Amino acid sequence: MADFDKELDARDLASPLPVLRAKAALRELLPGQVLRLLASDQRTALDVGSFCKTAGHELVAQDHQDGVRSFLIRRRAD
Q1: Is the whole-model pTM more than 0.85?
Q2: Phi and psi (nearest 5°) for 73?
Q3: CATH number for the domain including 22?
Q4: Do 26 and 34 touch, CB atoms closer than 8 A?
Q5: Does 1 fall in a domain?
Q6: Count of domains forming the chain
Q7: Which residues contact residue 27 at a Cβ distance below 8 angstroms, ignoring those fewer than 6 apart?
Q8: Which residues form the domain of 54?
Q9: 56-to-11, 34, 49, 50, 75 alpha-carbon distances in Å
Q10: In which band, very low, low, confident or very high, does the pLDDT at 1 lie, cut at 50, 70 and 90?
Q11: 4 falls in which pLDDT band (50, 70, 90)?
């Protein structure tokens, strides 16, 4: 996966908590910076896609290995 500016480990959280935590973490980043979100709840994949589309953030990449989903989310320009 590509480079990122901050990582959020939400592997032990059930949906929708990973996305809610990601929303808060993205507020701390500057526009254009990238958050790496780690989650184990399979429903998070749908939630992240919907969240990015609605909020205007870019879902740069996603991956799934050994039961862990990782997402790279670029913060939108304000």
Answers
A1: yes
A2: -120, 120
A3: 3.30.110.40
A4: no
A5: no
A6: 1
A7: none
A8: 6-74
A9: 24, 13, 11, 10, 8
A10: low
A11: very high
